[in-house]
Amino acid sequence: MPVEITMPQLSDTMTDGTLVKWLKKEGEAVKAGDEIAEVETDKATMPYEAPEAGILAHLAIQAGAKVPVGALIAVIASKNEDAAAVKKQFAAGGGAAGAKPQAAPAPAAPVKPAPAPTAAAPSKPAAPASAPAPSPKPASTGNYNFDIIVIGGGPAGYAAAIRAAQLNQRVLCIEKENLGGTCLNWGCIPTKALLEDGAFIRHLKNGAADHGVIVGDVKIDFAKIIGRSRTIAGKLAKGIGSLFHKYKVKHELGMGQLVAAHKVKVTSADKTTKEYTAEHILIAVGAKPTELPFAKFDYKTIVTSREAMTLPVQPKKMAIIGAGAIGCEFADFYNAIGTEVTIVEMLPHLLPNEDEDVSILLKRLFERRGIKSFTKTKTDKIEKTASGVKLTLSGENPGEIEADVVLVAVGVVANTEGLGAAESKLELDRGRVKVDPEYHTNLENVWAIGDCIAMHWPAEMGMAGYRHPDLAHVAHHEAVHVVEHIVGMHTHGIDYKNIPCTYTHPQVASLGSTEKKLREQGREIRIGKFPFSASGRALAAGEPDGFVKLIFDAKYGELLGAHMIGENVTEMLAELVLAKKLEATEAEIIDAMHPHPTMSEAIMESAGVADGRAIHL
Ligand SMILES: Cc1cc2nc3c(=O)[nH]c(=O)nc-3n(C[C@H](O)[C@H](O)[C@H](O)COP(=O)(O)OP(=O)(O)OC[C@H]3O[C@@H](n4cnc5c(N)ncnc54)[C@H](O)[C@@H]3O)c2cc1C
């Protein structure tokens, strides 16, 4: 089916745009993502990328023409179509019956168009007024207990269940533990509670005198710190139960198992079983910490993040294997409360996925606070000792270290054990549920989202080298996306190249590509970096460490990456997420008046540095 490409609407105010020049000729073969034209909008001149591969069969307008938003500008014929016939058909002004509209309205970020759902979902009354109504669906083909059964009640599962119920689907959510999943019970939220306490204690211990506060001996009530974190987690998990009640999501406490497409078995703690059927089944079973092959978890001295956030006694010495976000967060917290912490990381940097400038500064700041970090160092052996554990290391820091407890934070494996994958013939990829970019598994109407998936992007999407990011906000967006897709709504695409991620004190926040990656790709870039030591607000807060680093496309000024380290940068990132989504340019970020004095002025100034217009540097 030919793909019609129309003038995109890039802002609420844009009504027309100019096709500045064609970058490909009529009749030329294009790959998805190839720049085919330059389009001038009310914001900037932007490259327009082909949403799909094929032959550029028909250029409907000349270079220089200004056309309204939505007007046809080109047509791509798919590989097995006759490009000449497609051109003839469109040149005659008729268009094609059933031609596919273009995939993405925005030219710079091609998103695969959502294929039609593979089977009918039951027609339902209209959605709440605030949500776009689902498009009409053919009547259900089966007589099922539910429209959607969700297995797993974490950020992927509970968000999917709630969104589906909002869209008038009959939903069952099966969860074997507390609602809220890892994020609310054992991840994002309880760790942030601990980190806040750690920051508070660090301020009292080290910073109070600078602020004219004389504090005596700071004593720590470890049990109370752990207790506060658990209370917050419990409260939030209960909140999901209330939301289920509000939206009439049915909830089963038990282990969900896929029997076949459309059929699920639930086994409760007392071993009683029930079977349910549904038009669609959504797998959202999440993941659990990876175990080292040579050191099984004993959950007392060799522990996962779960035990690390509920230890009965504060360890004097802690070793942490893995310097990703989880390892660094625990290092930060335990250091703040006075535990001697050593991080061991095989890769050259802490937070190895972050921009190198950020990782290098974090290591320096951690070391200044007394956190030892051994990078390019491998843990070969963990032995139990009378007082805890002994680690044998090789690489850049060979030798042995002893600790009361070692936290292993080297990644996660999907919770697919006991899910019934073999019995139901659900295809897995190294233990994860294999899905396409619309979260469809190999089974009819069985979908999967969140930490448990292995995403297989088709080659033309240019995602080689990317892997699925296991983060709560990703799980949440996938949930909304897949449910809206199932009910036939137009979905918002997820751009996996621009996933924001955050964490630690000083906090780290980023989105998009790192400088290293962009240079490896040969992109021409402009970088602006603004240190918080030049920010009045940061100095007033006593937080001069860190910087904002923004990376722009040298030609078009498009924001390609944002990398920040410093106080509260996780909150600042939202501005840049929106800027990226709205394709704001460097000039627009500079021209947007930022309130003074705020840390966020560093974003404006950083764009100014890239553009040679910074005032305070
Ligand atoms: C220490 C830590 C800190 C983190 N901090 C952050 C952070 O700050 N920000 C962030 O974005 N992400 C963070 N994460 C990651 C985040 O928690 C996950 O990405 C997120 O929870 C994934 O959501 P999910 O729904 O896919 O999986 P989960 O949250 O793991 O939920 C899956 C649920 O499915 C249930 N389940 C599994 N199998 C079955 C079955 N067969 N039947 C029934 N139920 C089943 C599980 O009990 C679980 O409740 C952190 C993770 C950890 C461990």
Summarize the topology.
Elements: E1 3-6, E2 16-22, E3 29-30, E4 35-40, E5 45-49, E6 54-59, E7 66-68, E8 72-77, H1 83-91, E9 100-101, E10 146-151, H2 155-166, E11 171-175, H3 181-186, H4 188-207, H5 222-247, E12 250-253, E13 255-260, E14 263-267, E15 273-283, E16 287-289, E17 302-303, H6 305-308, E18 317-321, H7 325-336, E19 340-344, H8 356-368, E20 372-374, E21 377-384, E22 389-395, E23 399-403, E24 405-408, E25 412-414, H9 421-424, E26 428-429, E27 432-435, E28 446-448, E29 453-455, H10 472-486, E30 507-512, H11 515-520, E31 525-531, H12 536-540, E32 547-553, E33 559-566, H13 569-581, H14 586-591, H15 601-611
Parallel strand pairs: 1-9, 10-11, 10-15, 11-12, 15-28, 17-24, 18-19, 18-24, 19-20, 27-29
Antiparallel strand pairs: 1-8, 2-4, 2-7, 3-6, 4-5, 6-8, 13-14, 14-15, 16-25, 21-22, 22-23, 26-27, 30-33, 31-32, 32-33
The structure holds flavin-adenine dinucleotide.
Flavin-adenine dinucleotide (FAD) is lined by residues 151-157, 174-177, 181-183, 186-188, 191, 255-256, 284-287, 305, 326, 415, 418-419, 450-451, 470-473, 475, 503.
Residue windows where pLDDT falls under 50 for at least 5 positions: 101-139
Instruction: Find the CATH topology of the largest domain.
Output: FAD/NAD(P)-binding domain
Number of helices: 15
Class from helix and strand fractions? alpha/beta
Number of domains: 4
Distance between the termini: 54 Å
Compute the average pLDDT: 89
- Top CATH class of the largest domain: Alpha Beta
Per the principal axes of the C-alpha atoms, what is the gross shape? Answer: globular
Number of strands: 33
Tell me the helix content. Answer: 25-40%
Portion in strands: 25-35%
Gyration radius from CA atoms, angstroms: 26 Å
Main β sheet profile: 7 strands, mixed
* CATH homologous group name of the largest domain: FAD/NAD(P)-binding domain
